[in-house]
UniProtKB/TrEMBL annotation, chains A, B, C, D:
Protein name from the UniProt record: L-rhamnose isomerase
Organism: Gordonia rhizosphera NBRC 16068
Keywords: Cytoplasm, Isomerase, Manganese, Metal-binding, Rhamnose metabolism
Keyword Metal-binding assigned: yes
Membrane spanning stretches: none
């Protein structure tokens, strides 16, 4: 019953925690029924970066920003990188987009028409070129490709074309770059999705080579899926490239990570740690991918990175020696009890102290609320077109 | 193994089959990722009605069109009714919309703010007024109300306010009118939906009175839900007001009814028949509610009503006397075999003959393709704004 | 960030927490693949009661024991009651069993054969008679009735027969007794279950009368179902009779309550409190219904009642005034933050103090481990047949 | 609308259809709540084989019988093989069992205790030895290994031990033999299953070598999983070893294949054909794995193989040239229509003719009912212990 205490060793792992923010989290998003706008929403990529930098300033947890092409296309990426650096953040993962052009209605990298496939491939080559200019390491590919009706597409043929298209793209991935392939159970395709599960992503990236890996989005699984198992498995196989963090009750709800099931996030982070994903030499990239449909966006991002930090801290509290002993003794309740003891411990006071010691606000949510930033951007960002998934 | 043959009695029930088409099925729809436009998409409610009338002309199955307010708001509903009558169809159910105004971000009939609730109530009173002008019988209420995060709303209080708002609306429902309350498992709310299941809709409409009933949308259930059970139960309780037909593999996919699981549609229609829902005096209204995201819209609607007809015809083939005998004998495989025998019978030739006898095209899909209608509307409907969920 | 503190008021509600233990939790249970036996498993109902009393002695949370007929049938229930009282516990809910006789293969209260229905009705009358002798208040009915194949049974007819059978049983329910009807999504029936959801149970018990209510088993829902919503709704409708607590990742896993998703248990207890379910005059009965397939049984029950207590304590920490204010202000993150603040607070030290103040062990799990009880029953309970679902 | 006609080519593929029957399908099975016995249930493996041979005699579809060790352990496998041959069937897949010994409570091939792992490995070596004597090609491994509570086991460590154990077993697999590894979403483990998905099975068998492949049980997936996609993917990867056919509405319901969703079975068989799984040189083995809990067992098996045959025949009717053309034209409804046209065609008369031409009964279900076999075994098989999962 005595709560665990974080050891110095564990603290040092917590220092490795860095969570990339997606630029599009600061724009408007919503459901197919309605997208609500809010005052102060960024109109430009620079404004998105400024918002992301605010999250990092208050939390010390979010040192980089992912871009989405074409939503974040600019003329001068070097200048954009300098702008970001001035704000204290780096440019991160480049996300491609092959789901909003009319040509992609029936697929992109999997399309039966070679012309459309080439267009989609070329888009990825553009992304790789941008990566060179931004210094980004990862090209993240999430495909909307799939079909809505049985018979609409040739499942097998689409998979073969996917492999061919990916191979072409992979040839352009630089020595220090990676291609990460995201999977998703369903949506927007309603019958068959071309990369629906980790097995498919794993099989595809394994065929590509060492610089290709899987991206695990925590909201992209069938009901009941044990996600921490997949985390453990992909780490074991050396193919867990990155995370897209969010949470869900039903489908790809894209809620704030940890909001729907904090215990699940705890279990996931426990397996990340167990598999070396927080080690200094880890190549697992952590990123948020969420939609703040009804809540404020910047504090939504702050809440998100704090949730990851809190659940990581709790996971670091697990007394792994005692756990192993209980597991080997077949002591089910003992092992579960050791595990839960860490989860049930309130780490917030410890984390607040830790923040204060680093010159960060003890309570980043309150600090943001009191900062006047929200009022300031609402006053300044008037006119123009608020960013959303469409722009 | 000898296939059943439709008896004269069964044929007469098939004549009672009438499926209302939603005006919005002819506009563009899509996912939160992309809405694809297509040539010939209606710009006005009159063009939607013309398309719906085309479906009815070719199938004889779709004698009425449901309207959505405000999407289908016009100045003169009497004139709209005459326009529809000229096209051979009637105006049907009026569907309200309380999910696209900014005020409804946190609820409509359930909102904590009385002003917002009153606005939503007033919208429904406008709908009832329109019903008077169109001669519509049913006011259908589907609410997007709900919350995305635990703690965001007071579940219990929202339910009480819902009851109060519905009671106010119900007072204005005329003697020959009905209020039908649709339920939905989730979306757009991601944590808690205020009318998430048939039990909630049933409890709410029962509290209202005799002219309130449940609307069952076949895509609005949790994974694995036995929908035909709910059909049987609501018919038994006298509270099955209407159907929104569509099909799904995952969530509220809004695919063509019968496309995902024709056997399920067969089972549903079997219970409809079993419970008297196709009888001459039945008050169960059948309607489509689908999204033709990637397929052509008019043939999509034709395919849909044909699917309902085909599965209804198969369901009518069940030898119910033999089935009852097998059930009472505890002959599991025998009973199942009798049931499946009807499902496995190809009714299409019979239905084609029946159509021809009524002066309808034997193959409505082919008749549409050869009619030149698609080409004609693509040529004529140029300029303007294509209808979608937004307009 | 400042953790809430439990107010005196809240503490007093915590004193109302009483969780009934099922006698069968102390017997062996398992899956269809294997039932593992363990040393010390009770052979008699008296030994089960002794184990349950041990849980109560160490936790002060479990003052009564539910019986299952015929598993716990004895000749002299008055004597059994005295035995229980000597152990410090009372006899509670009587659970009927209509799923293990060969006659029930195709149903019990819903069977097409009147003789079988009467046998099942008579069994319930016997249970009511036992209730008179044990002073039990609740007759709990869970039915395995259902079908495995489409067509096997007449869904509608079965529902009508269920209503008739229940009405007959209800006539024998005494003035101070209740009939509680449990629902279950599926299992052992694999296609159609006759009481599959709360709506069906609600409709059936409402038809019976005031002394009939719904039993909500937390593991008996479709994937993704929002259980706290159902809790709130049934409390609102005045028909939440009782809980069967357990937890699940997949189906009716019957794991220790709170083990799979402690946050869900917190949300459920919040709605119980919100709806008056912990008030002094509440008629909501709390009970465990779990299977300790691989873990030790007695500490499994201790862990379970502690989990309910801990999550109830956390739920009592919610600052409801602040929560209401945030909800009314549309402050999504603020409201969620207030809610989560309570959940994230470690209540264990407070509860340990509270226990000590009442003369209970501060750490019941440790107290049990050190008590020697497990070793004692393993030594004494040798020979005979270990209790299980079969006996 | 003109129904397709089976071409000679397609017929020849239908001749390749051979479905292995599991010996245990003829024994009693059930749920954790109750196992119902029936007159005539086999007491010995010979009686099981006799029943299986009856299915084959009436359908011509089931030329082999899978054995389960230890349930079907005999002293003289050569004699057993001769007995089977006399009945017109061969002995097929050997299924191991590491889920019913007390030592396996916490795992078998994944257990932390080397002694238990070795015991489980040795059991598989015994199975391989039996394969040598029976001439069986496949060793099928389904593991119940997993955990019920978070923290109970080390997910990663268990996976590593699984790999090591499998590698040891694989070393003994002969040149003409295969190891097929089955995956299952959950049950009997309720939190974490060690081989929960096709990705895990694929990664494990790929590490073993060419003579290891995946077994796909159609009932072992998360809700909503697109199984035909997995079929297509595994065929593409060359790792689809075998099928365990059954169907389900909820979990691993083990219902008659095709009973829950015949359209899904059609889609699965379409992908089997598409990927060469019915070709003469195919190495994909088809097998049933079902539980006849409430229905008669022998006709249950007959119904099952007929369902596979019927859906295969329908799948062979798909006009693949027209389908490809429609797919390439982006004609969603056209492609779906071609696909559905085949599914909606009643193939039963054609198959009856085909059977008659081969000297088989046109209606195997009726032929069985009229054969007197059921009455005969009920009369003869008196005394002894009916076979079940336990023996």
């Amino acid at each position: 019953m005595t709560p665990n205490t974080m050891t110095t060793d564990n603290f040092s792992l917590l220092d490795n925690l860095a969570i990339e923010l997606p630029s599009w989290a600061f724009g408007n998003s919503g459901t197919r029924f309605k997208v609500f706008g809010t005052p102060g929403t960024p109109r430009t990529v620079e404004e998105k970066i400024a918002d992301a930098a605010t999250v990092n300033r208050l939390t010390g947890l979010a040192p980089s920003v992912a871009l989405h092409i074409p939503w974040d296309r600019v003329d001068d990426y070097a200048a954009l990188g300098r702008f970001a650096a001035d704000q204290g953040v780096a440019l991160g993962t480049i996300n491609s987009n092959t789901f909003q052009d009319d040509e992609y209605k029936f697929g992109s990298l999997t399309h039966t028409d070679k012309t459309v496939r080439q267009k989609a491939i070329d888009h990825h080559l553009e992304c790789i070129e941008i990566m060179g200019q931004t210094g980004s390491q990862d090209l993240k590919i999430w495909l909307a490709d799939g079909t809505n009706y049985p018979g609409q597409g040739d499942i097998r043929g689409r998979q073969d074309r996917l492999a061919e298209s990916l191979a072409t793209i992979y040839q352009h991935i630089g020595e220090d770059q990676r291609l990460v392939l995201e999977y998703k159970f369903f949506e927007p395709a309603m019958y068959m999705t071309d990369v629906p599960d980790w097995g498919t992503s794993y099989a595809q990236v394994t065929a590509l080579g060492e610089r290709a890996a899987v991206c695990l989005d925590t909201g992209h699984h069938a009901p009941g899926t044990n996600i921490e198992f997949i985390v453990a498995q992909l780490l074991r196989l050396g193919k867990l490239g990155s995370f897209d963090f969010n949470s869900r009750f039903y489908a790809d709800d894209d809620l704030i990570v940890g909001a729907a099931d904090p215990f699940q996030l705890f279990r996931i982070m426990f397996e990340v740690i167990r598999g070396g994903g927080l080690d200094a030499d880890s190549t697992v990239a952590l990123m948020l991918d969420q939609c703040h449909n009804v809540e404020e966006k910047i504090p939504g991002q702050i809440r998100s990175v704090l949730n990851v930090q809190e659940m990581t801290a709790r996971a670091l509290l697990v007394d792994t020696d005692a756990l192993t002993a209980a597991q080997e003794a077949g002591d089910v309740l003992g092992a579960n009890g050791i595990f839960m003891d860490a989860f049930y411990t309130d780490v917030r006071p410890m984390l607040a102290e830790r923040r204060a010691a680093k010159g960060l606000p003890a309570d980043p949510m309150r600090a943001y609320a009191e900062s006047g930033y929200a009022e300031s951007i609402a006053a300044v960002r008037v006119g123009g077109t608020q960013s959303s998934w469409g722009a």
